[in-house]
Design goal:
155 residues, 2 helices
């Protein structure tokens, strides 16, 4: 082999080793990335639920009993909330009807007070009207008597 061929072979080997070094460095950096950020699960790509935050998970056998207790407690709480909602609905209706009754009582009380005042004012004006009629009748009678007296004196 020639020295030119040897140089070419060594330069090709150098190029091959440089490429291998780069590939190894890339692989090492990729491995480091996987160590720091664990591999994403297929379930992370799923979009389940209203806000897309629910993900599939694996449950341990030791977690099954607490999950059952939690679900039964949650069901009991939901029943309690439902009964409280019904109770509060009844209380709201009761307070609403009591408030309406109270308003009706107050309105009736105001109506009777106003009616009594109107009646007393009408009675007062009728008495004044009657008194004025009597006064006017008296003045008329006096004027007739004076006029009659004036005519009788002249005849």
């Amino acid at each position: 082999m020639d020295s030119a061929e040897i140089q070419m072979d060594s330069s090709e080997d150098a190029l091959g080793t440089d490429e291998c070094q780069k590939i190894i460095e890339n692989l090492e950096s990729t491995l480091e990335l996987f160590h720091f950020s664990p591999r994403l699960n297929i379930s992370d790509d799923l979009q389940v639920g209203f806000f897309r935050t629910d993900h599939a998970t694996q449950t341990d056998y030791s977690e099954i009993l607490p999950i059952k207790e939690l679900s039964s407690t949650t069901q009991k709480l939901m029943q309690a909330v439902k009964s409280l909602t019904v109770d509060f609905g009844f209380l709201k209706d009761l307070l609403h009807f009591q408030f309406e009754d109270r308003i009706k009582e107050e309105a009736f009380h105001l109506f009777t007070n106003l009616q009594d005042r109107i009646m007393s004012i009408e009675k007062y004006y009728k008495q004044n009207e009657e008194q004025m009629r009597k006064c006017f009748n008296q003045q008329l009678a006096d004027a007739i008597a004076i006029t009659k007296g004036m005519y009788t004196v002249g005849f």
